Amino acid sequence: MKKRNYDSDADISRKLDMLVVRSEKKAKQAVTQAAKLYEQTLIANTPVHKRQTHTTHAKDVTKISNFKAGETYPVKTVGFNSNQDNGWYIHFPDIGTEVRGTVGQPGQHFIRKTQVMSKLPIMAIYTKAAEDIFDV
């Protein structure tokens, strides 16, 4: 019978540390890739009126945030840059407007459409990242 060499506590600890570092790196890469995919889908779904009332269209001012500090896992947000001249109003075309019972503009629900369209590809990105982390 052949004698097995077992890893020492130091070897196990080192391997766990490497797994944590590798998992954090892969998680950040996956979140960044998912944010870019979501942004492209949002740009494609954002309505554009043929009459331009601002210097840019809303689809031209999409923005991906940096990683949010203080979170236990990597988080980025994707949306419209509200500092631009048209980023602040984009929620009106999405949900519509209603003033004293009269509908000024029906909602187009393009943000919800973007979420639904992006869900499966983003889940595939996260699944692939998890498989890469654990060498599945």
Structure commentary:
The protein contains three helices and four strands; from the N terminus they run H-E-E-H-E-E-H. By secondary structure, the chain is mainly α. The protein has a two-stranded antiparallel ribbon. A two-stranded antiparallel ribbon has the order 3-4. A hairpin with a 2-residue loop joins strand 3 and strand 4 (102-105).
Task: Give a quick rundown of the structure.
With 136 residues, the protein is mainly alpha-helical. The protein is built from three helices and four strands.
Structural class: mainly alpha
If helices are DSSP runs of H or I spanning 4 or more residues, what is the number of helices?
3
User: Low-confidence stretches at least 5 residues in length (pLDDT < 50)?
Assistant: none
Distance between the termini: 31 Å
Radius of gyration: 22 Å
Q: What is the makeup of the main sheet?
A: 2 strands, antiparallel
The helix-strand sequence is HEEHEEH
**What order do the strands of the largest sheet run in, or round the barrel if closed?**
1-2
Mean pLDDT: 82
Strand content: 5-15%
Indicate the percent of residues in helices.
Answer: 40-55%
E-strand count: 4
> Which descriptor suits the 3D outline?
elongated
Write the layout of secondary structure elements.
Blueprint: H1 9-45, E1 62-64, E2 78-80, H2 91-95, E3 97-99, E4 102-105, H3 110-134
Antiparallel strand pairs: 1-2, 3-4
Characteristics:
two-stranded antiparallel sheet; 136 residues; single chain; mainly alpha; 3 helices
